[in-house]
Design a protein that fits this description.
535 residues, alpha+beta, 3 domains, 11 strands, globular, binds adenosine monophosphate, binds magnesium ion
Length: 535
């Protein structure tokens, strides 16, 4: 473990790939380059709100070895360490189904890259000022969006979902003007910076931009760089060529499928699955107007910009993952030269997603294995959950408490349903009660069969369920409450919730209040139910 000043930066992205010749920081089109060198903006009064020690550990960083103020200066971009070479990446993207041209790191600045225990990490500030990719915006981030990004990055990691990480959250001491509701009433909000950490920040859109411009040499350079560093097992001594690129697409497809299956398992809705927000290594990336399903509703999206079409709603995510992969396949087509191997690679997506989904649903229901005819049981449950507003997280967590012994059949409907009542937002109708009890009868039989077949006990079943059905997720209103507490000066609020989210599958009796379903006041409150992209 080393102090901040001893981190050794290797910065291979800037050393191995072509960069922008101009150092001009004003927004513009950048051609022939994977990145532009930039200087983070100096903010007036950096203040650390939270640091994640487990992320510091990944970097080999000894948090005790330096002063908090120094850390705040560095992690907001005010002070650069020797070896840092800040840069913003050039990428494009399809936004809401349409090609949007150059996007790039408009409010993100990579400080530098370090290797620790043979693992390579990039440190990136989000909200540290203008870059050539800032377009019409200011390159800044506000507290509410930064709290949300910081907490969700870490919450997702602890849930077992591949994700970019977050090392720190800081206030800048400056205010930022934002029109939160896009209604012509902008207000000043506290500015903040998150230091994100990832193995790679390269996105699908990083390849699309070069393909769209016919910059095929650059496309190959970035693809080979990515293969060399992030997918070395695919090369194993081979030179990159059409076959390797197709295998690479299949691997990206598999990773994307696994990540999206995790989202479906935990009830996460990304909200802006544009191709610039899909990571080439399969991490969840860019936490903007994301949300967590409360009432189970496959159409639900937290993103107000998408309220009408619901392109990125919960249930649409698996299909959108494929749509995005097809854009990636088109982008790398010049490297392969024929469509067939790419089409075959894309088939992997559906196969892996179906496998993961089946295994996850079997585990969520407590079965030792997925069986072919479980499909019907699962579908009928998901249909039932849409019949009356039912909290997804609580329902699955509480299902482990349902008694599956044969005698239960003699209990009244109310007694059978008792463990699940906490999940309903309104008292369920008689129709829903009787349909649920009917479903529970089938579920009991299948659960007993699973236990008999595997030699497991009911306690094993409950353990299996509790390991995949989280008790604590970053409910939309919880994030908003933390934002409000910090705005009122309660700087410990972030760490308090982060502490709970570190153990999402454990019972934490003292934090029961963080496991409650959304209160009625939060149903329509901005920030608690829906969000805009304005951050
Ligand atoms: P998103 O979909 O939120 O990840 O952002 C889409 C694009 O807009 C990315 O290229 C961002 O860098 C850029 N962007 C978003 N907000 C800002 C901002 N406040 N300043 C500059 N660029 C931004
Ligand atoms: Mg983005």
């Amino acid at each position: 473990m080393v102090g901040l000043d001893q981190l050794e930066f290797d910065n291979r992205f800037v050393h191995e790939l072509p960069g922008d010749e101009s150092a001009d920081n004003t927004p513009r089109q950048v051609h022939g380059a994977c990145y532009s060198r930039v200087t983070p903006r100096v903010c007036s009064k950096p203040q650390l709100l939270s640091v994640a020690p487990e992320v510091a550990e990944l970097l080999g960083l000894d948090l005790a070895a330096f002063e908090r103020d120094h850390l705040a200066q560095v992690l907001t971009g005010n002070r650069q360490l020797p070896g840092m070479e800040p840069y913003a990446m050039c990428y494009g993207g399809h936004q809401f189904g349409n090609w949007a041209g150059q996007l790039g790191d408009g409010r993100a600045i990579n400080l530098g890259e370090v290797t620790h225990q043979s693992r390579h990490w990039t440190l990136q500030l989000k909200g540290a000022g203008l870059t050539p990719y800032s377009r019409h915006a200011d390159g800044l981030a506000v507290l509410r969006s930064s709290v949300r990004e910081y907490l969700c990055s870490e919450a997702m990691h602890h849930l077992g979902v591949p994700t970019t990480r977050a090392l720190s959250l800081s206030l800048t001491g400056d205010t930022v003007l934002r029109d939160m509701f896009y209604d012509g009433n902008p207000e000043y909000e506290p500015g903040a910076v998150v230091c994100r950490v990832a193995r790679s920040f390269v996105r699908f859109g990083s390849f699309e931009i070069f393909a769209s411009r016919g910059e095929h040499q650059l496309l190959k350079q970035l693809a080979d760089f990515t293969l060399r560093h992030d997918f070395p097992e695919l090369l194993s001594g081979r030179e990159p060529g059409p076959e390797v690129y197709a295998e690479w697409l299949a691997e990206v497809a598999a990773r994307t499928a696994r990540t999206i299956a995790h989202w479906m398992r935990v009830g996460f809705v990304h909200g802006v699955m544009n191709t610039d927000n899909l990571s080439i290594i399969g991490d969840t990336i860019d936490y903007g107007p994301y949300g967590w399903l409360e009432g189970y509703d496959p159409e639900w999206t937290p993103n107000t910009t998408d309220a009408q079409h619901k392109r990125y709603g919960y249930g649409a995510q698996p299909n959108i993952g494929l749509w995005n992969l097809i854009r990636l396949a088109n982008a790398i087509y010049p490297l392969v030269g024929e469509a067939k191997p790419l089409e075959e690679a894309l088939e992997v997506y559906g196969e892996i997603f179906a496998q993961c989904r089946a295994a996850d649903m079997a585990a969520k229901l407590g079965f030792a294995h997925y069986q072919q005819d479980d499909g019907e049981l699962i579908e009928s449950l998901l249909e039932l959950l849409t019949q009356t507003e039912t909290d997804m997280t609580l329902f699955f967590r509480q299902l482990a408490q349902v008694d599956i012994s044969p005698q239960t059949a003699q209990l009244s409907d109310a007694e059978q349903l008792a463990p699940l009542m906490a999940a309903y937002y309104q008292a369920p109708s008689h129709k829903v009660i009787s349909a649920t009890c009917q479903w529970l009868a089938d579920y009991r039989l299948r659960s007993q069969q699973s236990l008999a077949g595997s030699g497991e006990t009911n306690a094993d079943r409950q353990r299996r369920m509790n390991a995949v059905n989280p008790k604590y997720v970053l409910r939309n209103y919880l994030a908003q409450q933390v934002v409000e507490r910090v705005e009122e000066g309660d700087t410990g609020a972030v760490d308090e919730l982060l502490g709970v989210l570190r153990r999402p599958y454990d019972e934490q009796p003292q934090w029961e209040r963080y496991a409650q379903k959304r209160p009625e006041w939060a149903r329509a409150k901005p920030g608690c139910s829906t969000l805009s992209c304005s951050s």
